[in-house]
Amino acid sequence: MLINISIEDANRILADEHIDINIIEISLLDSLDYVLAEDIKSNINIPPFNRSPLDGYAYRSEDTIYATEDSPITLEVIDVIQAGYVSNKKINNGQAIRIMTGAKIPEGADVVMKYEDTKFTDKEVKIFNYLKPQSNIVKMGEDIKSGDIVLPKGIVIGPAEIGILASLGRSHIKVYDRPKVAILATGDELVDIDEELKEGKIRNSNSYTIAAQVKRWGGEPVLLGICKDNIEETTRVLKSSLKWADVIITTGGASVGDADIIKEAFQETGGKILFWKVKMKPGTPIVVAKYENKFLFGLSGNPAAAYITFEQFVRPTILRLRGKTKYNLMEVDSLLENNSNKISSQNRYIRAFTYKKDGKYYTKLPNKHSSGVLSSLSEKNSLFFVASGMGPYKKGDKIKVQLINYLEVGE
Ligand SMILES: Nc1nc2c(c(=O)[nH]1)N[C@H]1C(S)=C(S)[C@@H](COP(=O)(O)OP(=O)(O)OC[C@H]3O[C@@H](n4cnc5c(N)ncnc54)[C@H](O)[C@@H]3O)O[C@H]1N2
Ligand code: MOO
Ligand SMILES: [Mg+2]
Predict the structure, then answer these.
(1) Range of the domain at 382
(2) Residues 261, 151 share a domain
């Protein structure tokens, strides 16, 4: 078992683990934010015909070569085409058809002039200037050509992709499924949110924080409730969850206390421990195991430690399980707003609020930092990483922060 490893090694070990991704078929609108699991090829041209981009008149360009402001050319109007309809008339010399935006260009016409630049009656239209052939004609296949791979496998489905799929007539598509994530709180001291608080007890907040983080990154959280610090009971719950969950996250019992049994429980399930303890604060005692193709994350019981180690180590795994290939958090250069007097003896992620003003990012640190304090994580959107031995920092120092809610956008 690897113990007390660096943050980089922990990330590398996790990234090297093989990921089995499930593919499901899903209805179009439900596919928002899923990753596409098939190449989408078009079997039609879009638009499927040459069409008018304007409300105006379609005619033959050659008829109007000599049209000028002072000496307009008059054409006979032989039909009207609304969008969605076609004309069975062919335009000959000296003729025009009144046409609406989106309608199919009639046979014989090679140009469209908008209403505003003409003078017209029901029977005639006057053209005052010459337009080259093909002016104001949207070509068949301008948007999508038949045979094109319009959406490649691996892209994230957003509103535009949903529209493209709709235009291709796809009501169902193949996507990578969302991982099912079982969440278990462990600790004799825990009661659930609707239970009375007796002496020595605290409420289980971790399960809810973690479930919200899982949801935010697109996993499907399933709360397993609370387990006592008992290895048999914990192992039993883990084993039954391993039958259906892709990921199990526990909180508590990860350290060296008498009742800290998570590492042993992971082993009892038959899982292989990938590592235990990472050189960082908060969250040092994280334990990660693999059982077949499933991941088990044993996070510290301390609420801020669980929150931060989730973002560093669990989030990338959830995103990979959803078929995403980009999963690093966005990092920005920022200016520190307050002094941070501590010299860090260990690598440390400090919770922070980062905002933009006049084109620059600024970062404010809260007063409370302890790994047992959850309240000061409220409205924090970033983490200031301080490597071991670094600091103190003062107001105005240039720092780098991770934005917790945004993924890095790369090529
Ligand atoms: N002798 C040592 N003691 C500790 C060490 C160490 O290296 N040597 N490491 C400390 C560090 S760092 C951390 S972090 C914690 C990790 O603790 P555990 O993962 O074993 O978690 P617990 O002991 O079960 O609980 C810690 C703390 O968190 C509270 N807690 C637990 N579950 C929840 C929950 N679901 N919701 C809210 N709060 C929860 C629990 O009551 C404790 O206060 O160990 C240090 N000790
Ligand atoms: O690593 Mo622990 O999470 O700081 O208290
Ligand atoms: Mg403990």
Answers:
(1) 329-407
(2) no
